[in-house]
Write a structure and sequence with these properties.
Elements lengths: L4 H11 L46 E2 L2 E9 L10 E5 L18 E10 L8 E6 L2 E2 L1 E6 L2 E7 L5 E4 L8 E9 L26 E2 L3 E6 L3 E10 L4 E9 L6 E6 L6 H6 L21 E4 L5 E4 L13 E9 L2 E10 L4 E5 L5 E5 L2 E2 L2 E6 L13 H13 L4 E4 L6 H10 L2 E5 L7 H5 L11 H18 L5 E5 L10 H11 L4 E6 L9 E6 L13 E8 L1 E2 L16 E2 L3 H21 L3 E5 L23 H9 L21 E5 L18 E4 L2 E2 L10 E2 L6 E3 L13 E4 L5 E5 L2 E6 L7 E4 L7
Parallel strand pairs: 23-24, 23-32, 24-25, 25-26, 26-27, 27-28, 28-29, 29-32, 30-31, 35-36
Antiparallel strand pairs: 1-12, 2-3, 2-4, 4-10, 5-9, 5-12, 6-11, 7-8, 7-10, 13-14, 14-17, 15-16, 15-18, 18-19, 20-21, 21-22, 33-34, 33-37, 38-41, 39-40
């Protein structure tokens, strides 16, 4: 086995003589309604110590996470002469784990400062100062020299600080301004007045800050694009400072740990998740190519899938003449994501040319103690491991870009990711009107910024094999220039699918046509050239006392009081997915992984202490979705496509009204459905406004049916159905689409 570069990097970190406020022992978390077990373990010395860039690993680096000085000033004020206190980076100032717990308004600026020294062993190399994410506008100085300004919520950025450094102690200062919800910038679910599905705003540094020494000419990215059909990989080794005649050297092999071993190790930071070297094509072979130029390599490697997430390690070097300028480690996976028809002619999502139904949660990635920042890498890994254990094979990363290590863990665990672009510019009218017909009106500057951050997100994450789908827009939130942006994304990265958009205002373009339906499930009718998916459903809530963000005001799309009721309803939803799969449904996204602030519709509580389901039972339910779906033969048609005539009355009838032969001559007749409004998923043809309604219909069957018999029904709210005078089904609550309800054994006699 080769040396583990990540473990070596951590060992090197322990030797680096960083100085500044990071060792101060007076830090403590700010007050918070909830803390996670990982948040309770955080100290200034343990705040996100993991190597932050798993797709391009070098041994030498220095972590600048820890205690910094901070100050809040007027928006246009100069660097403060006096600092307000200390803040724990990389946790945002609003969070408990920052140790501050204060809001910063759009009329204010947030300043940071800390001291550091550059190790003597880095002499002769360029020193990069890297910020993995700062929300939103960050200006940085080192020793009083302004390095530049970056605008963005989630994308990493860096400055070459070499020429600003001096011997001994150096100082880095950063100023951050965040308009929160007063501007049009991408911000996800942050609002100044959180409530419901909108969350506490985040300002400032919220991912790792670090130093890295690099050669004047060095590797900046390793992009591996597999071609499963041809058994080859197209590599592009991007380099800065490369000259004519320089070459990149690629070696496939040098693996360290199997994925199974990594799972047993609990996702610890010193483990590099790549498959053990096996003697197959490409192993140990070396390839030479030009920097910044695509080249193809024939390989014979196992295919990556959720059931077999095989990752292959590679070493890359940049060489000039007989000398090596730079070296780094990365990895790749052989996998292909596409669309195509199954044996029944339905458009499906294909993984490695085979249909694969995708089932997983809407994953918000929020934390009660860290807000956008997970309290630790282990905490983040825990969420993903739970998803895998309950039988999911994907997650939709909802309008947030996570630290790189989340995607690294998904690569290893075998979780496919639908990646949302954080939303911006949410007009109230667009939120409350699902059928909004016009795109939002962005200024030229705002539209440019959106596209800049969208491209940065794709450039940042496209190196991770787990990414399967790009989601540029969620519902109508900041949806603008829709088809132009969707086409650009597809052209820019044709190796992934494009959701278009997720829910609500479809414009007729994209690989997926995505329905949102609560509680659902439901689907768009199959299309000849697009895949029908259910991008959000469920939202079943259960408040768990002692694990709530607030004692009052908690909600789910449908809320229950008892765990047994929640589990039974979730199981019913999963069972109802099965026939939809037979009709062409290709994916379903359940809302959601955890409770978030006042939302209580998570599989887990917000503090991750309570899993509301039995994982083995849940996994068994999900396994059923991968068996052949049931097929249905219509015995008597519903009124979905054509209104069927029913007799009805809104006045309580005489006893025995449900029995055969009852005289309903005085009842009215009209086509179904009946209702006061036209709810989603139904077609109301006859107005009904009273609290109760009684309905009768007679159908003729040539012979009694064999096998299981179901009612296909749409109801709001409770209803009882009798057949030949025998209670056949009793349903409660409301549905947002027609669904199957089993008929009782007594009624089938």
């Amino acid at each position: 086995m080769t040396a583990n570069p990540l473990r070596a990097a951590l060992a090197a970190l322990a030797l680096l003589p960083l100085v500044g406020p990071s060792s101060r022992g007076d830090w403590k978390p700010a007050a918070a309604p909830l803390m996670t077990r990982w948040g309770k373990q955080v100290t200034p010395g343990t705040a996100w110590t993991e190597y932050p860039r798993p797709q391009l690993v070098r041994q030498d680096w220095a972590n600048l996470n820890g205690i910094w000085d901070y100050a809040i000033t007027a928006k246009d004020a100069d660097k403060p002469a006096k600092w307000d206190g200390q803040i724990l980076v990389p946790y945002c100032i609003e969070s408990a784990l920052s140790g501050v717990g204060k809001r910063v308004s759009p009329e204010q600026a947030l300043w940071y400062r800390r001291a550091f020294e550059v190790p003597a062993g880095w002499a002769g190399r360029r020193v990069m100062l890297r910020f993995d994410a700062v929300d939103w506008e960050a200006t940085v100085w080192v020793n009083g020299t302004k390095l530049g300004t970056h605008k963005g919520m989630s994308d990493p950025f860096a400055f070459d600080i070499t020429d600003a450094l001096k011997a001994g102690t150096n100082e880095v200062v950063a100023r951050v301004w965040d308009p929160t919800d007063t501007g049009s910038q991408p911000r996800g679910k942050q609002v100044s007045k959180p409530g419901g599905i909108w969350y506490t705003p985040v300002t400032g540094i919220w991912q790792t800050v670090w130093l890295e020494p690099v050669a004047p000419a060095h590797v900046t990215r390793v992009l591996a694009t597999p071609n499963v059909d041809k058994g080859e990989v197209e590599f592009r080794i991007d380099c800065a400072g490369a000259q004519d005649g320089d070459k990149v050297v690629l070696m496939i092999g040098g693996a360290t740990v199997t994925a199974a071993e990594a799972r047993q190790n609990g996702g610890k930071s010193e483990t590099m998740y790549v498959s053990r070297a096996v003697d197959v094509g490409g192993n140990g072979r070396t390839f030479n190519a030009k920097p910044n130029t695509p080249f193809r390599v024939k390989v014979n490697r196992p295919l990556w899938s959720p059931d077999n997430p095989v990752l292959n390690s590679i070493q890359v070097a940049l060489a000039r003449g007989d000398g090596e300028l730079d070296r780094a480690q990365s990895y790749f996976a052989m996998r292909k994501v596409s669309t195509g028809k199954d044996e029944n002619g339905h458009q499906r999502i294909l993984l490695n040319n085979k249909p694969l139904f995708l089932i997983g949660p809407l994953d918000q990635g929020w934390w009660p103690d860290g807000l956008l920042t997970p309290p630790s890498d282990a905490a983040m890994f825990h969420d993903l491991k739970v998803l895998k254990d309950v039988g999911y094979n994907m997650l939709r990363k909802h309008i947030k870009v996570e630290p790189s290590r989340l995607y690294y863990h998904c690569d290893m665990l075998g979780l496919m990711v639908w990646q949302d672009m954080p939303s911006g510019f949410i007009e109230k009218t667009q939120f409350v009107r699902p059928n909004w017909k016009e795109d939002a009106k962005f200024s030229e500057e705002d539209a440019k910024q959106y596209r800049t951050e969208l491209k940065a997100m794709i450039d940042h994450l496209r190196v991770f094999p787990c990414i399967a789908v790009w989601v540029p827009f969620n519902e109508g939130w900041g949806q603008h220039d829709t088809n132009d942006i969707l086409r650009w994304v597809k052209e820019y990265d044709p190796t992934r699918l494009v959701d278009a958009p997720s829910g609500w205002t479809d414009r007729g373009y994209g690989d997926l046509k995505d329905l949102h339906r609560y509680p659902g499930p439901d689907m768009y009718p199959p299309l000849p050239d697009r895949v029908s998916v259910l991008g959000e459903f469920g939202g079943l809530g259960l408040p768990v006392k002692g694990h709530l963000w607030k004692d009052q005001g908690n909600w789910g799309y449908r809320t229950y009081k008892a765990p047994e009721e929640l589990r039974r309803t979730y199981h019913q939803l999963v069972r109802q997915l099965h026939p939809l799969i037979g009709r062409g449904l290709a994916a379903a996204v359940y809302t959601q992984t955890t409770d978030v602030e006042v939302e209580v519709n998570g599989l887990m509580t917000y503090d991750r202490e309570v899993l509301k389901f039995d994982p083995a039972e849940m996994a068994a339910w999900h396994r059923e979705l991968f068996t052949p779906p049931p097929t249905f033969r219509v015995l008597a048609p519903s009124s979905e496509a054509e209104g069927r005539t029913w007799k009805y009355t809104t006045k309580k009838p005489a006893d025995g009204w449900e029995q055969p032969g009852f005289d309903a001559a005085g009842w009215s007749e009209a086509p179904a459905g009946f209702g006061a409004l036209d709810p989603p998923g139904a077609k109301v043809r006859t107005e009904w406004k009273t609290p109760d309604i009684w309905l009768r219909r007679t159908v003729e069957l040539a012979r009694a049916p064999a096998g299981e018999v179901y009612l296909r029904i749409h109801h709001d709210d409770d209803a009882e159905v009798s057949i030949n005078g025998v209670l056949a089904a009793k349903v409660t609550g409301y549905l947002t689409a027609y669904q199957e309800a089993p008929i009782s054994a007594e009624a089938r006699q």
